[in-house]
């Protein structure tokens, strides 16, 4: 299969899957497309071919998805991992970081599949019945002018343009939340009894909650029925970390929405697909991340590289077929586990925080941390 | 039925306060002893711990293997080698130099702090032993917070002190409390002298909670490296010795201490020489791992190692660089000296630099974070001349330039993790940072 044939097959699949991921799951189709994409990316991306050759897992020997070598997310900082000529690049998303950091980059020569994937997951797991209703949306994140290379801003912007009502906008500017405008939008939504959709980074919500706590007045932030909130981004590189369940409960409390309406998105710049909490779709089931049919999430023993038993904790490896122009198999630095139903079948997954005591590596400092320190002081002696 | 709610005081804070009151009280008897007496006791305790057949060391090795992730052979070897390098007489000589000499002048007196809090960090026992003994010698009783990484060393030291001297034993209390127990920390940080080991963030957090009148002795996180000169590649016995020494330094305490080398720089070696050295180090690690297997590692560490190895596979041209992956260690021969993350747990990077000047440039960004450096394969200066105006060639000149980056000790491969008892940790002298002196000009008036 050529890349364009693979992408067309994926676009058809995504279009059919938007409203029912479960019905659209097709293991044979996934295997066929994943192996075809692997063959294409092996030929087109030299650093990836080097990894595959070093592991002795090339298209000649790989027969199953589990055998496809996965690229660590850190490699997106070091290499331009594209499977197309550099001149064809139309968009580069970059991971967050300071000006002295090396930032991971996702290179794209088309946004067609990227957009289709992100909108399908948003409609399926977050908007659901609000899709097509043009709800107003507010985002506690910078807009595309301020953050042109942020994949998160791009996603919110895409959502706003495709599904947002007239009063939709970004409420974070120059690093500051426009609380007056945000409060006005909530007031207007309450007056009109129209559900409001809110999205933002986890850390922006923490700042917002701090403000509400200091201000003392909570009632004015209450949202009308049917409203929902999406938080994402985590706390990497931040001085303060709030546990996910605490943040969720605080958000639900301030906005006066059910915790099921507070959705965490697991995503990363290096991927075209995202994973949303299940609670709007399945309020009575366990909270877990839902995997779109065109992606597969595996949990791997980091020492052996072999998949762990179902439900056990492992390193998260994602095969995202929507990453057609770069690399589809990505090895994250996160730990997670599959969530199983009564019959032992996976129905989603859970991302775990860092292991307790993981930072306690003794008094030797990891050089990534140390590098930060040396950069802060400008490398002077 | 009426529900009676009682708000109990913070139990850990109360334990810390009670312990503090006990050691402060014990401080009176401690200070009543002469400096020389206290030093003699500390020396005797060190003799007990460093003796070839030390029962304390044997017991500690057993307890640590149950309480930590290190393998038992790694613990035994680490303790034997680390404590064998401690000479109790050198400890005494150091105390006499730093404290005894000013006291002998008849004008200075020790004015010991009423108590000292020691907040330990890391899982390696030697710093815990030393940080407890130093204030006691100076006449300040010690409250030492144990960490979950090493919950046994301090208690064993307390028993060994009791076997030698009641006054010193009563003036030392190890205590454990959770790291997030703010109330317990508040009590511990009331001490007029606080000694802490930890990350920059941890130390800054502690410092913010102290008043300017409190003495704060801080030991931040550091790392060590080795640098091998090109002469090594042409000297087979020296190469064998250096490769074994570096492998030992990496394997000791599973690379978890600030004296563990995370990077080896190959200075001025050509491609073939680099590969030869990398292979020898990897082979030595293979051999050492048989005797001293790596202990358990966290999943996060395993993920980090896996990712770094995969990135190395993508980066390295197999004709130039090399990756050695084994069950208990990983060695990456890079093709450039660019710094990269160090997952630790016996993960070693080998980086080429063209010259000694390039070595200095590569290390300059880490100024202040470097602990010790192991050197081998560099020529000795033909005629070392400290009065020479210009820089001289040779290892002395190299050491001088590296010392300006804050390196506190130079040694040979295999000795990074076994410093002498009086080495200048973080560039400081041993006793002086913890000592308080007073002087009287009115004597005889």
Q: Brief description of this entry?
A:
Chain A has 11 helices and 16 strands. With 381 residues, chain A is an alpha/beta fold.
Strand-helix topology:
The complex is a heterodimer of chains A (381) and B (445).
Chain A: H1 3-17, H2 21-24, H3 27-44, H4 46-54, E1 71-72, H5 75-78, E2 91-94, E3 105-108, H6 112-127, E4 136-140, H7 151-163, E5 169-170, E6 172-173, E7 176-177, H8 179-192, E8 196-201, H9 202-215, E9 228-232, H10 244-255, E10 262-266, E11 275-277, E12 289-290, E13 295-300, E14 314-320, E15 329-340, E16 346-352, H11 367-376
Parallel strand pairs in A: 1-15, 4-5, 4-8, 8-9, 9-10
Antiparallel strand pairs in A: 2-3, 6-7, 10-11, 11-12, 13-14, 14-15, 15-16
Chain B: H1 11-32, H2 35-50, H3 55-67, H4 72-84, H5 88-104, E1 108-110, E2 116-119, H6 125-138, E3 142-145, H7 153-164, H8 166-170, E4 172-175, H9 182-188, E5 193-198, H10 200-208, E6 215-220, E7 223-229, H11 236-251, E8 261-267, H12 271-291, H13 299-315, E9 322-325, E10 330-333, E11 347-353, H14 356-363, E12 370-376, H15 395-403, E13 409-411, E14 437-439
Helix pairs in contact in B: 1-9, 2-5, 2-6, 3-4, 3-7, 11-12
Describe this structure in words.
- The complex is a heterodimer of chains A (381) and B (445).
- Chain A is built from 11 helices and 16 strands.
- By secondary structure, chain A is of the alpha/beta class.
- Chain A has a domain at 113-277: ANL, N-terminal domain (Rossmann fold).
- In chain A, the strands form 4 sheets. A 7-stranded mixed sheet of chain A has the order 5-4-8-9-10-11-12, with helices on both faces. In chain A, strands 1, 13, 14, 15 and 16 form a 5-stranded mixed sheet that branches.
- In chain A, strand 14 (314-320) and strand 15 (329-340) form a beta hairpin.
- In chain A, helix 1 (3-17) packs antiparallel against helix 3 and helix 1 (3-17) runs parallel beside helix 6 (112-127).
- The longest helix of chain A is centred in the first third of the chain and has 18 residues, at 27-44.
- Chain A starts with a helix and ends in a 5-residue tail after the last helix.
- Chain B is of the alpha/beta class.
- Chain B folds into 2 domains: 11-221 and 427-439, Aldehyde Dehydrogenase, Chain A, domain 1, CATH 3.40.605.10; 223-414, Aldehyde Dehydrogenase, Chain A, domain 2.
- In chain B, 45% of the residues lie in helices and 16% in strands.
- Chain B has 15 helices and 14 strands.
- Chain B has helices at residues 11-32, 35-50, 55-67, 72-84, 88-104, 125-138, 153-164, 166-170, 182-188, 200-208, 236-251, 271-291, 299-315, 356-363, 395-403; strands at residues 108-110, 116-119, 142-145, 172-175, 193-198, 215-220, 223-229, 261-267, 322-325, 330-333, 347-353, 370-376, 409-411, 437-439.
- In chain B, helix 1 runs parallel beside helix 9 (182-188).
- The longest helix of chain B is centred in the first third of the chain and has 22 residues, at 11-32.
- Chain B is globular.
- The termini of chain B are far apart.
- At the A-B interface, helix 4, strand 1, strand 15 and helix 11 of A face helix 13 of B.
């Amino acid at each position: 299969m050529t890349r364009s044939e693979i992408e067309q097959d994926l676009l058809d699949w995504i279009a059919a899957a938007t409203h029912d991921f479960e019905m659209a799951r097709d293991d044979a189709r996934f295997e066929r497309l994943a192996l075809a994409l692997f063959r294409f990316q092996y030929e087109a991306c030299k650093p990836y071919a080097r990894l595959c050759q070093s592991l002795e897992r090339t298209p000649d020997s790989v027969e199953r998805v589990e055998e496809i070598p996965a690229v660590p997310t850190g490699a997106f900082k070091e290499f331009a991992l594209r499977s197309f000529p550099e001149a064809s690049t139309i968009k580069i998303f970059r991971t967050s970081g300071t000006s002295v950091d090396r930032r991971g980059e996702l290179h794209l020569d088309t946004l067609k599949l990227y957009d289709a994937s992100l909108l399908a997951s948003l409609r399926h797991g977050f908007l659901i019945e609000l899709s097509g209703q043009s709800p107003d949306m507010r985002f506690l994140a910078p807009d595309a002018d301020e953050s042109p290379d942020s994949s998160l801003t791009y996603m919110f912007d895409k959502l706003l343009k495709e599904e947002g009502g007239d009063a939709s906008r970004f409420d974070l500017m120059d690093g500051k939340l426009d609380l007056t405008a945000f409060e006005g939008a909530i007031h207007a939504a309450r007056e009109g009894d129209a559900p409001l959709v809110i999205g933002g980074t986890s850390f922006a919500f923490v700042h917002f909650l701090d403000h509400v706590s200091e201000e003392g007045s909570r009632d004015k932030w209450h949202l009308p029925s049917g409203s929902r909130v999406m938080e994402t981004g985590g706390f990497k590189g931040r001085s303060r970390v709030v546990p996910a369940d605490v943040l969720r409960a605080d958000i639900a409390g301030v906005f006066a929405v059910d915790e099921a309406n507070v959705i965490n998105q697991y995503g990363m710049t290096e991927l075209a697909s995202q994973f949303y909490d299940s609670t709007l779709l399945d309020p009575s089931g366990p909270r877990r991340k839902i995997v779109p049919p065109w992606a597969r999430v595996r949990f791997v023993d980091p020492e052996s590289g072999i998949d762990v038993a179902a439900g056990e904790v492992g390193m998260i490896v994602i095969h995202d077929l929507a990453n057609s122009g770069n690399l589809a198999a990505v090895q994250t630095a996160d730990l997670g586990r599959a969530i199983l139903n009564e019959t032992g079948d996976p129905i989603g997954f859970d991302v775990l925080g860092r292991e307790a005591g993981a930072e306690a590596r003794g008094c030797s400092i990891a050089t990534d941390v140390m590098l930060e320190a040396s950069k802060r002081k400008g490398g002077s002696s | 039925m009426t529900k009676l709610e009682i708000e109990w005081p913070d139990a850990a804070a109360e334990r810390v306060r009670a312990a503090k009151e006990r050691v402060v009280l014990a401080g009176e008897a401690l200070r009543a002893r002469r400096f020389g007496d206290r030093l003699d006791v500390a020396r005797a305790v060190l003799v007990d711990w460093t003796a070839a057949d030390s029962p304390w060391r044997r017991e500690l090795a057993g307890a640590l293997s149950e309480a930590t992730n290190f393998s038992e052979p790694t613990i035994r070897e680490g303790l034997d080698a680390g404590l064998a390098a401690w000479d109790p007489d050198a400890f005494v000589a150091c105390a006499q130099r730093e404290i005894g000499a000013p006291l002998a002048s008849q004008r200075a007196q020790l004015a010991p702090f009423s108590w000292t809090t020691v907040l330990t960090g890391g899982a390696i026992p030697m710093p815990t032993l030393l940080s407890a003994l130093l204030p006691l010698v100076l006449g300040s009783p010690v409250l030492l917070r144990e960490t979950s990484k090493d919950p046994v060393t301090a208690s064993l030291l307390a028993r060994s002190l009791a076997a030698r001297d009641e006054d010193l034993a009563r003036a030392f209390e190890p205590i454990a409390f959770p790291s997030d127990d703010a109330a317990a920390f508040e009590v511990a940080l009331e001490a007029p002298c606080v000694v802490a080991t930890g990350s920059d963030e941890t130390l800054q957090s502690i410092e913010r909670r102290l008043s300017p009148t409190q003495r704060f002795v801080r030991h931040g996180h550091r790392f060590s490296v080795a640098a091998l000169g090109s002469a090594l590649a042409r000297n087979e016995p020296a190469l064998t010795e250096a490769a074994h020494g570096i492998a030992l330094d990496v394997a000791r305490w599973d690379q978890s201490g600030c004296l563990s080398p995370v990077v080896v720089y190959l200075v001025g070696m050509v491609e073939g020489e680099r590969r030869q050295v990398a292979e020898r180090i990897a082979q030595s690690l293979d051999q050492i791992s048989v005797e001293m297997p790596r202990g358990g590692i966290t999943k996060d560490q395993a993920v980090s190692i896996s990712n770094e190895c995969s990135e190395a596979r993508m980066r390295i041209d197999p004709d130039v660089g090399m990756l050695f992956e084994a069950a208990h260690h990983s060695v990456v021969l890079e093709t450039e000296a660019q710094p990269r993350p160090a997952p630790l747990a016996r993960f070693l990077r080998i980086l080429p630099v063209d010259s000694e000047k390039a070595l200095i440039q590569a290390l300059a960004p880490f100024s202040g974070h470097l602990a010790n450096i192991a050197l081998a394969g560099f020529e000795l200066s033909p005629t070392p001349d400290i009065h020479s105006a210009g820089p001289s060639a040779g290892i002395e000149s190299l050491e001088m330039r590296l010392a300006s980056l804050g390196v506190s000790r130079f040694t040979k491969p295999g000795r990074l993790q076994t410093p002498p008892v009086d080495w200048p940790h973080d560039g400081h002298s041993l006793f002086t940072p913890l000592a308080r002196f007073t002087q009287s000009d009115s004597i005889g008036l």
